[in-house]
Amino acid sequence: MPHPLYDLLDKLDDAKIHYALSRQRPGSVLLSITVVGQRVEIDVFGDGHMEVSRFIGHEDIEGGAELIDSIIAPG
To answer: Any long-range contacts for 41-50 (C-beta under 8 Å, 24+ apart)?
Structure first.
């Protein structure tokens, strides 16, 4: 029986959606997807269940190099 992770990867490949795989938490694989107007993070666990977070926003230019400093500066 195929694992749901592989089914998801096949769906993304068929839709020609670029993704990155990483490991942020034990027992899961994180798929990071960026499409117009949203960023999606999908944690796929060993038992096949998934947790999906979607971040929706505009794609306006908000600044230059100075904005990077304010984003990464400690609170």
So the answer is: 42/8, 44/4, 44/5, 44/8, 48/3, 48/4, 48/5, 49/4, 50/4, 50/8
Amino acid present at 54: R
CA distance 24 to 70: 25
Domain boundaries, the chain: 4-72
Prediction pTM value: 0.80
pLDDT tens per residue across span 11-21: 999 999 999 99
Q: Is the separation of the CB atoms in 40 and 46 below 8 Å?
A: no
Query: What's the CA gap between 52 and 54, in Å, rounded?
Result: 7
